[in-house]
Write a structure and sequence with these properties.
The protein is α/β, with parallel strands linked by helices. It contains 22 helices and 7 strands. β2, α6 and β3 form a beta-alpha-beta unit.
């Protein structure tokens, strides 16, 4: 089976054989490569000199670089900042400069993992980009705002590559099964096995094709089933549907375990979701919600940790981001709990929906013109900083809602201090 799969392809990986040769073959990235996508327009008009591609692996960054080189007639030079030093990059740039001066032809330098270069190393690129002797594409999986210098960013046009959607990956897999450069109709794929490949791939087309190729090589039949995919991935197919009931069941169990201060259960349900192929960005968004809904001001640092976990997911992706999610989940599970913000916000919204929309009291309105001043805008406003304790004896709710209390802290965690402060504020206002 393995011999028939590879004998006529000289061992070239399936993902490489199926690499798109033109823009119309690219799957995904509709926002930038669709009919009216900005990057597509630039490529078709040849209006580019230096580009930055930011996105996770397997989303088409190198492929688009090769297509640009082919369209422009440029020689494609692929280097990785993780493996190549400044000396090697400078040698390529100097060679490209000489070629441009002698032949009038440009090379295209595709510098992968450009974020691995430090500030001084990135500065080496600047003069060559300014003179235009070489076409340049820098690719990075990390946020350029943090990893690249402002000087390099200002000389390049930045484009964001998103992880492929489940439907995009489905198209990639199905094309591989029928394309003459791929498996050319020699195999079919069981629907359950297809779903597992999609979940495993996490938006990465290269990962999907590599797993499919391995499953085809070890399959005992022309139909690639779930067993072959499990063996290829070295993991069992978990009962998990990213868009079905199990998706909602697991995230519910995860949320409620954190709410009930159970870090062990939180880790278990987190592992179930990650191993089942859940999008880590979905989990990160739920952690941010939990930090506000179930912890709130009882531990304000919970929101910071949840946001940091979300940023980690964006910067490094799976599998490296798993511990950041676990760290946030355990922290939130162990944190003191308060739903005072959740309850208070819901009550305020209910009043907004069910009661008349009260006008803003005149003393709280700005009075930028004499006319506004003349009709009483700003009259009676008291500037809090003019008072010894920074609290003015002034009602800020509309008269019909005066005295209404939406936020009622529980007294747990940091809210204990807030309770004391609110009592002090009330005493100061009553005294004045």
């Amino acid at each position: 089976m393995e011999e028939s799969l590879f004998s006529d392809e000289r061992g070239i990986p399936l993902a490489e054989r199926l690499r798109p040769r033109d823009l119309d073959e690219v799957i995904g990235q509709e926002e930038i490569l669709g009919e009216h996508g900005a990057l597509r327009v630039l490529i078709e008009r040849g209006s580019y000199r230096a580009l930055l591609f930011w996105g996770p692996p397997g989303t088409g960054k190198t492929t688009v670089g090769r297509i640009i080189a082919a369209r422009s007639g440029a020689r494609f030079v692929h280097l990785s900042a993780a493996l190549s030093g400044v000396r090697e990059v400078r040698a390529v740039l100097e060679g490209s400069r000489r070629r441009f001066e002698l032949e009038g032809k440009r090379d295209l330098l595709f510098l992968d993992e450009v974020h691995r270069f430090n500030r001084a190393q990135q500065d080496v690129l600047l003069s060559y980009l300014e003179e235009g002797s070489v076409l340049f594409i820098g690719a990075t999986t990390e946020n350029p705002s943090f990893s690249l210098t402002s000087a390099l960013l200002s000389r390049c046009q930045l484009f964001l590559f998103h992880p492929l959607s489940g439907e995009d990956l489905r198209r990639v897999i199905r094309r591989a099964l029928v394309d003459p450069r791929g498996l050319a109709g020699r195999y079919t794929l069981d629907p359950q096995a297809e779903e597992m490949l999609i979940a495993f791939s996490d938006g990465d087309a290269r990962r999907a094709l590599t797993a499919l190729e391995t499953a085809a090589a070890i399959a005992t039949d022309v139909k690639i089933g779930i067993t072959a995919v499990e063996r290829a991935l070295q993991q069992k197919a978990l009962r998990y549907d990213r868009s079905g009931e199990e998706h909602y069941n697991l995230i519910s169990a995860f949320h409620k375990s954190i709410r009930n201060s159970d870090p062990d259960a939180a880790l278990y349900w987190l592992a179930r979701m990650l191993e089942g192929g859940e999008d880590p960005r979905f989990i990160a968004r739920r952690l941010i919600r939990i930090a506000s809904e179930d912890i709130g001001l009882a531990d304000p640092q919970g929101l910071e940790i949840a946001v940091a976990a979300s940023e980690t997911v964006d910067r490094v992706g799976l599998p490296e981001c798993d511990l950041a999610l676990a760290q946030a989940a355990v922290y939130l599970a162990c944190a003191p709990k308060s739903n005072a913000l959740y309850v208070g916000m819901n009550e305020a919204r209910r009043d907004v929906k069910e009661r008349p929309n009260e006008p803003v009291p005149l003393h709280l309105r700005n009075a930028p013109t004499r006319l506004m001043q003349g009709i009483g805008y700003g009259d009676g406003y008291k500037y809090a900083h003019d008072f010894p304790n920074g609290v003015a004896p002034m009602e800020c709710l509309p008269p019909a809602l005066a005295g209404r209390r939406y936020y009622r802290p529980t007294g747990r965690g940091a809210e204990e201090m807030i309770v004391r402060r609110l009592k002090e504020i009330k005493r100061i206002k009553e005294k004045k």
